[in-house]
Every structure is written in structure tokens, then in C-alpha cells.
């Protein structure tokens, strides 16, 4: 039975990694035809419609109504804003690059823990941070940095948002995580409406089938179903197993981009990703188990 549980857990890890990793490829496909702000609203709406009815019940609703400010914050920094920053950057960056930049959030999580929560760090964690950012420079390529500086910076801000929202989520751990995720998507959708309306390009339904499918997959599978799988995984397995996802998402992102968008995997990509993965590993393996719950 233990064997079976382990296999199911690893299948969940694989599924979540593949579907989250694919979100960058889908985003890149969709922004060829749909403006980033429109995409973000639709993606959040699809996820909210799928997750909300499944996970938000009366009891959780009452609990959440007491933490509205946190939900507003989460909707913005854990959904609407980073989704928009990545979608905007997808107009210029490859799917592999997007997924690697998204993968830096554990590095930011450590920086935030040090700066804001005065967390004690080990020497290895600091080495990990350095390795991560050196890997990022290798991956992007020093000659390219000037060209892509702006979209890369936007994605790093997005990764920082994800990292910071973990602290907010941590304080809300009395609320069922799937209900919280659903409320985040809903709140994110509400806060993406101004973006949607301020978009000068008008929204049109005259899109290719490929774009329709990519958008549906992005909203329902990459944002919706994989979140459900992630929550199930968190409840079934150890945090270590669940956090292995953060290593796999950048790799699967590069993999999808290479297969379907013909993105090149060269020495820079391999060496850079390896450094980043080592960095994420070193910053995560030695996490002091208890964070301050203040």
C-alpha cells in the first residue's frame, strides 16, 4: 500500500509539474492573438468558475469573510499581477525563459525571510542564492541582458510577488487551502477587470482554434485542475515531495517550449538551469522547520 501511495504521489508531482510548466507555452501561444490583460481576466475567470463551486462552502466562506483584506492582497499578488507580468513578458521571452524566471521565487522567498522575518540563514543557503542568480545570468546570456532587461525584470517582480504571497498564505493556514486558492482566483479576477477595461485593444472572439484551446487549457488545467492536484498532493505527501515541484516546473517549461515552440536548448540553457536548480536546492533543503507565526 505504501508503494501505491508513493506512486500516486509521484504521478501527482509529475502531473502538476507538467501542467504548470505548460502554462508558459500556452501563455506564449495565446498572447500572439490576445492582449495580456484580456488573457489574465479570462484565465482567472475560468479557474474561479471551476474551483469556486467545488471548494467554497458556507463554513469556509464565513472564515474567509473575516480576512477580506488578505484575500484582496492575495488576489493581486498571488494571481492577477504576476499572471499579467508573465503574460506581458511572454510577448518577448521564450516559454523556457518564462518558466526559469518563475522558478526563481524560492530564491526570493529566502531573501524575504532574511530581510523581513530575520530568519537565520545557513552558509549553504547564501551560496544557494548566489548560485541561483549566477545561473540566471548564464541562462539569459550576458549579451542578451540589455535586450530583454525590461521583460526579465517584470518576471522577477512576478516571482517576488509569488514568494511574498507565501507569507500571507502561511498566516491563513486555518482556512482550507483549496477554498483559499479558489477565493484567490476569484479575487484576482475582480482585480483584473480594471486591467481588462483599460486595454486599448478591443476584445474579439475571432480567434484561431489553437488560441481557444490554449486559453481553455491555461484556465482550466494549468490554473484550475493542477491547483486541485497540488492541494491533494500537499495533503497526501511530505512537504519535501511537494516542493520537488519547484525544481520540475522550470525543467518541464523548457521541455514544452522546445517540443512545441522549437525553442533551442543550448549550453547556456543547460548550464544556467543547473545552477538555478542547485540554488533552489540549497536554499530549500536546509529550511528551519518552524517559521515564525506572528
Written description of the protein model:
The chain is mainly alpha-helical and 294 residues long. The chain is built from 13 helices and no strands. The longest helix has 29 residues. The C terminus is likely disordered.
Task: Give the gist of this structure.
The chain has 294 residues and is mainly alpha-helical.
Counting H and I runs of at least 4 residues, what is the number of helices? 13
Shape: globular
Instruction: Give the rounded overall mean pLDDT.
Output: 88
Question: SSE order in H/E notation?
Answer: HHHHHHHHHHHHH
Task: Summarize the helices and strands and which ones pair or pack.
Layout: H1 2-30, H2 36-55, H3 58-65, H4 68-89, H5 95-102, H6 105-115, H7 123-140, H8 145-171, H9 177-198, H10 209-236, H11 239-243, H12 245-260, H13 267-285
Helix pairs in contact: 1-5, 1-10, 1-12, 2-4, 2-9, 2-10, 4-8, 4-9, 5-12, 6-8, 7-13, 12-13
Key words describing this protein structure:
single chain; 13 helices; mainly alpha; 294 residues; disordered C terminus
Amino acid at each position: 500500500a505504501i508503494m501505491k501511495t508513493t506512486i500516486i504521489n509521484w504521478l501527482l508531482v509529475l502531473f502538476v509539474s507538467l501542467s504548470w510548466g505548460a502554462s508558459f507555452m500556452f501563455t506564449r501561444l495565446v498572447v500572439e492573438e490576445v492582449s495580456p490583460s484580456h488573457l489574465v481576466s479570462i484565465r482567472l475567470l475560468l479557474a474561479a468558475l471551476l474551483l469556486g463551486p467545488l471548494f467554497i462552502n458556507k463554513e469556509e466562506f464565513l472564515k474567509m469573510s473575516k480576512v477580506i483584506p488578505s484575500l484582496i492582497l492575495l488576489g493581486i499578488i498571488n494571481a492577477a499581477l504576476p499572471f499579467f507580468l508573465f503574460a506581458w513578458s511572454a510577448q518577448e521571452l521564450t516559454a523556457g525563459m518564462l518558466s526559469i524566471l518563475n522558478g526563481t521565487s524560492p530564491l526570493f522567498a529566502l531573501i524575504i525571510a532574511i530581510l523581513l522575518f530575520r530568519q537565520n540563514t545557513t552558509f549553504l543557503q547564501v551560496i544557494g542564492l548566489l548560485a541561483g542568480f549566477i545561473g540566471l545570468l548564464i541562462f539569459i546570456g550576458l549579451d542578451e541582458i540589455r535586450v530583454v532587461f525590461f521583460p526579465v525584470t517584470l518576471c522577477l517582480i512576478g516571482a517576488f510577488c509569488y514568494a511574498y504571497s507565501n507569507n500571507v498564505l502561511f498566516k491563513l493556514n486555518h482556512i482550507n487551502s483549496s477554498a483559499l486558492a479558489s477565493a484567490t482566483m476569484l479575487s484576482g479576477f475582480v482585480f483584473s477587470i480594471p486591467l481588462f477595461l483599460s486595454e486599448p485593444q478591443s476584445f474579439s472572439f475571432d480567434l484561431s482554434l489553437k488560441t481557444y484551446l490554449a486559453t481553455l487549457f491555461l484556465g482550466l488545467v494549468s490554473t484550475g485542475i493542477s491547483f486541485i492536484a497540488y492541494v491533494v498532493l500537499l495533503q497526501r505527501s511530505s512537504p519535501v515531495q511537494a516542493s520537488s515541484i519547484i525544481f520540475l516546473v522550470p525543467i518541464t517549461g523548457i521541455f514544452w517550449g522546445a517540443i512545441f515552440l522549437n525553442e533551442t536548448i543550448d549550453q547556456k540553457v543547460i548550464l544556467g538551469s543547473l545552477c538555478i536548480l542547485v540554488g533552489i536546492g540549497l536554499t530549500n533543503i536546509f529550511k528551519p522547520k518552524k517559521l515564525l507565526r506572528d
